[in-house]
Design a protein that fits this description.
The N and C termini lie far apart (about 110 Å). The chain is built from four helices and no strands. The longest helix has about 30 residues, at about 40-70. Helix 1 packs antiparallel against helix 3. The protein has a domain at about 1-70. The protein is mainly alpha-helical.
């Protein structure tokens, strides 16, 4: 929008400065002087192309923003584990001794000397 504010007055200024050149070379109706176009057809085409360009740019900007908005929706997932309620019981005072104790034969052979 800001570009259009500056470009249209510059188009009119360019048209006024180069009017004779536009009338003699760029005007589409130079073969029909009874229309008194005087290059206004060229100016109208330039303004129409500027409007078309602005519409394309606005559409492109809109689509870019739309895609960025859709693609940039990052959902923060925080997984908090549910609280665990556990009761710690006191240690039981029971000790169980196994009647089976494995015997290693090497212990009978290799031992410190007896005095």
């Amino acid at each position: 929008m800001l570009v259009k504010v500056w470009v249209i007055p510059l188009l009119y200024l360019d048209f006024e400065i180069r009017r004779q050149y536009i009338i003699s070379n760029l005007c589409e109706n130079k073969n029909r002087p009874q229309m008194h176009c005087d290059g206004k057809c060229y100016l109208a085409k330039r303004i129409a192309s500027l409007d078309e360009q602005e519409k394309r740019q606005a559409e492109k900007t809109y689509m870019t923003r739309l895609i960025d908005q859709v693609m940039d929706q990052r959902a923060d997932f925080t997984f908090t584990p549910p609280p665990v309620a556990a009761e710690i019981l006191p240690k039981a005072g029971i000790s169980i001794l196994s009647t089976f104790t494995p015997r290693i034969a090497v212990d009978d052979i290799f031992h410190p000397p007896l005095v």
